[in-house]
């Protein structure tokens, strides 16, 4: 029994990505809460996220995140607690 039409099956497919591939390129994304995410470089940016401009190897992206994302708390929590 088919749940989706052939057209929808083509449109709705699972994307897999090898995060351990040394040739892989990534984007570093950020959301409104100033939380970051490593994202496959060839995939569209999901809603609620924006590109930081960093598009590099996993190691380079990880280094950027270590230097940039020094407070893991969401922005709204930082503001509530610190009055930032």
Automatic annotation (TrEMBL):
Pfam families: MbtH. Coiled coil: none annotated. SMART domains: MbtH. InterPro entries: MbtH-like_dom, MbtH-like_sf, MLP_fam. Residues 17-67 form the MbtH-like domain. It comes from the Bacteria. This is MbtH-like domain-containing protein. It comes from Dactylosporangium darangshiense.
């Amino acid at each position: 029994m088919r749940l989706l039409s052939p057209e929808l099956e083509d449109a709705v497919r699972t994307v897999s990505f090898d995060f351990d591939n040394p040739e892989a390129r990534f984007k570093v994304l950020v959301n409104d809460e100033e939380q970051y995410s490593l994202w496959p470089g060839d995939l569209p940016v999901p809603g609620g996220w924006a590109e930081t401009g960093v598009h590099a190897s996993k190691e380079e992206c990880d280094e950027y995140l270590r230097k940039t994302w020094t407070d893991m708390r969401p922005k709204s929590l930082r503001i509530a607690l610190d009055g930032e």
